[in-house]
Amino acid sequence: MLKSMVYVAMLLLLEDTTAQNPIKKRLAPPKPSTKGQCCDEVRSLKVQVANLTSILEELSRKQESDLLNVVRQMLELDKQSRQQEARVTEAESKYSEINNRVEIIQMQASQAVTKTSSDAIYDCASLYSKNYKISGEYRLPADDFLGTPDLDVYCDMETNGGGWTLIQRRKVGLSSFNRDWKQYKSGFGTIRGDFWLGNDNIFRLTRQPTTLRIEMEDWEGETRYAEYKFFTIANELNSYKLFIANYSGTAGDSLRYHNNTNFSSKDKDNDKCVDNCADLRKGGYWYNCCTDSNLNGMYYRLGKHTKNSDGITWYGWHGPSYSLKKVEMKIRPQGFRP
Ligand SMILES: [Ca+2]
Question: What are the E-state strand segments in 191-288?
């Protein structure tokens, strides 16, 4: 191929010289006998040049398309290697997530051994100050002074500094909260799912100055909270009467209306109404006449959550007929410092 290219170049040079040489042009007329022969040669050379040029063009086109193919293949390989890399990264992150979970389980297991031997644990805040800083299920030891048995609780050790003991959660929606006085007294549900910790336990945990934090999530995935710097309830003889003060938050103050009211359940009407609020709102709560919030109401799923007035409501955020997707009520001592 190189040979033919050189040949072509020489021919091109020859043609160029022939065409542009004025001497030859001037010399041409006196030799009319050789004019036809010379021009024939030039013509045939021109044809050859044209042929060779077209071959050269074809070759260069082929080369170009070969090059394009190579580039295309390289890009494809590059893409494949990047996909491979992404898969490896994904696998790695899954692995570390699992690893992380195993570590948490191991730490909680090691904590379980030591936590029962301590007698100074009253709640999640005291666990936190003893360096148990992982959210999860814990067992509070029995309180000899108050004569109360041990208690399984869920500790939120992350939100706003941690140290929170959950007293209520709604998120699964399978267990009913339309229960009687006795069940609200001792508590019901599962500590990792939906539950009420029990009015006796809440009474016991709020003997010290306590803060209440309520976290909510709607069906659009938005979250709000309401915090009461002061929160306590009375004992059973005084119908677990609610006392709250010093609201702050983003959800609105929809527990204020329930302040200074007794607890009611479907079998005990302690509300401030002619109606039976617990019966109307299908839960146990500090009903006034009846609600500005109903956190122990019926659990309604997406699609049915805006049709009833007995759902899990917080009027200050979504009004009287929007049932929330998730609620958590949690407490910690006022003096808690993370
Ligand atoms: Ca009533």
Answer: 195-196, 210-217, 223-233, 242-249
Q: How large a percentage of the chain has pLDDT more than 70?
A: 82
Q: Residue 145 C-alpha to ligand 1 middle, in angstroms? A: 36
Residue 116, number of CB atoms within 10 A of its CB: 14
The H helix count followed by the E strand count for the chain is 8, 11
Cα 309 to ligand 1 centre (Å): 17
Centre of ligand 1 to C-alpha 275, Å, is 4
pLDDT at 142 over 70: yes
Q: Is the dihedral of CA 168, 172, 178, 180 positive or negative?
A: negative
Under a CB-based contact definition with an 8 Å cutoff, are residues 307 and 138 in contact? no
Distance from C-alpha of 64 to C-alpha of 198, rounded to nearest angstrom:
80
Between the CA of 254 and the centroid of ligand 1 the distance, in Å, is 20
Tell me the pLDDT tens digit for each residue of 187-236. Answer: 999 999 999 999 999 999 998 999 999 999 999 999 999 999 999 999 99
